[in-house]
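ok so I'm stuck.
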Amino acid sequence: MALVASLALAPTSAQGQMSDYTCKVIDGDWAWFSDHALTRVTYVVSAAGYRQYQVGTGVSLWGKPRGRIRTSSGLTEATAFGNGAIHVRFSDGKGPGQVCVALGDLSVVTLPEIDF
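replied:
not stuck anymore, here's the structure
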């Protein structure tokens, strides 16, 4: 529960960063937050409860993340695998607003041993 409390107390500046979360003011365009490589990573994403946003994971090509995209509001978790990034955008048409993203859980992906 400490993570939820720290997200709720995030700065309201246009862009703030501390060791455990990153907050940005974003709009309807995809905004990059973090990259990941050879991992299984869970991100905790938070925005005002009345705002609807999309969280996208994977490699960003042609202006859009090409992994999983999910729609949410308030607090949610997004899990990503392998190489890529997390991107967020508001999808409610209400203009800019603040979103915070924190690292929830991280583990290295174990690659199988292959003999050639």
